[in-house]
Design goal:
The structure holds 3 protein chains of 3 kinds. Chain A is mainly alpha-helical. Chain A is built from 3 helices and no strands. Chain A has one domain. In chain A, about 80% of the residues lie in helices and about 0% in strands. Chain A is flat and about 45 Å long. Chain B is mainly alpha-helical. Chain B has one domain. Helices cover about 75% and strands about 0% of the residues of chain B. Chain B is built from 5 helices and no strands. By secondary structure, chain C is an all-alpha fold. Chain C has one domain. Helices cover about 55% and strands about 0% of the residues of chain C. Chain C is elongated. Classes of the chains: A mainly alpha, B mainly alpha, C mainly alpha. Chains in contact: A-C, B-C. At the B-C interface, helix 2, helix 3, helix 4 and helix 5 of B face helix 3 and helix 4 of C.
């Protein structure tokens, strides 16, 4: 039972990170990275490491998203074709 | 050129697959002496129910000191660099 | 600078108290339940990041000096607690099993979890929590503000 849930969560981690790489809208990439971090903290909780899960959810999904959004706010939202 | 990339990626994938099949079973470490000592004696010696906290703050306190020092140095560096933004580039 | 919508402001007003209570709980119960100084400090710093993003235009002054002082206080308190156990060794737990402050004896096995245990570990949790909270919110504050040269 738990193995099926783990497989679904790990597939979700891979899919969200690949989608974050391929997206042209950087705000969408940031939101997808936050979703990947949340799924990763769920995986840590299933592997009996709740300390790491709390720290990952707070830093990965909260703080780094805020810092990325500040950086996008100061630069450009759309990815440039010719660098 | 594109063929070489595909072949390299396939070889790397096969290598990762063989390695993951040859690993020891998940959740079974090779040496358990240290873990058994912490689990048996940690609660009576440090008085904390959370064994992870008793390891992080008591048995291996020096690691936590290093981690806090790294964070302190990072915040000091950010404050040093962005101080120009507060004063507008002028020295006080 | 574009202004923040009303929905974000109302949700931020609602979320201030629960997030603050959850972060304080994670720091103060670090020796009984999962969490500790690092995780609780990161949760409180998330609250500061939310406030900075929402109410950035209402600030007149950048309050970074308070966080700088708090960071130094947490770090000094942590190292001082480590030095107090120097009668036997660095980082020696000198308060445990003494029936004094945080000194209730605990035996091996299942217990309901008393708050008055674990010696010097809760004090170190508080020190590291204050230090991590003020360091991370200092970084967020300094990264979020406008430059002096941008205003002209």
């Amino acid at each position: 039972m738990f193995e099926i849930i783990e497989m679904i969560i790990l597939l979700g981690v891979i899919c969200t990170s690949v989608a974050a790489m391929l997206s042209k809208d950087l705000l969408v990439s940031v939101v997808l990275l936050a979703a990947m971090s949340l799924l990763l903290s769920l995986e840590f909780y299933i592997l009996h490491a709740p300390d790491v899960a709390i720290a990952e959810a707070a830093i990965g999904a909260g703080l780094s998203t805020a810092i990325y959004i500040m950086a996008i706010n100061k630069t450009d939202r759309w990815e440039n074709e010719n660098g | 050129m594109k063929m070489a990339r595909v072949v390299t990626l396939a070889l790397f994938f096969v290598f990762l697959l063989i390695t993951s099949l040859a690993m020891r079973p998940f959740g079974k470490p090779s040496n358990t002496g240290m873990d058994d000592y912490f689990i048996q004696n940690g609660q009576a010696q440090t008085g904390s129910n959370n064994i992870v906290t008793s390891v992080v703050f008591d048995y291996r306190g020096m690691d936590t000191l290093g981690e806090a020092t790294v964070l302190f140095a990072a915040a000091s560096g950010v404050l040093l660099i962005f101080q120009r933004a507060v004063t507008g580039g002028k020295h006080e | 600078m574009n202004d923040v919508s009303l929905i974000v402001k109302v949700v931020a007003y609602i979320l201030i108290v629960p997030v603050f209570i959850f972060g304080s709980y994670v720091i103060l119960h670090g020796h009984l339940s999962p969490g500790g100084g690092f995780a609780g400090g990161a949760i409180l710093a998330t609250l500061v990041a939310m406030l900075v993003i929402t109410f950035r235009d209402d600030f007149k002054e950048n309050p970074h000096e308070i966080f700088s002082i708090l960071e130094c206080i947490g770090m000094i308190f942590f190292i001082l607690l480590a030095f107090f156990g120097l009668s036997s060794s660095f980082f020696h737990n000198f308060l445990v099993n003494l029936n004094g402050l945080f000194g209730k004896p605990v035996h091996f096995g299942v217990n309901p979890g008393y708050l008055n245990t674990a010696g010097v570990i809760p004090l170190m949790n508080m020190a590291v929590g204050i230090e991590v909270f003020s360091a991370l919110s200092l970084i967020v504050l300094m990264l979020s503000m406008r430059y002096g040269g941008e205003r002209k």
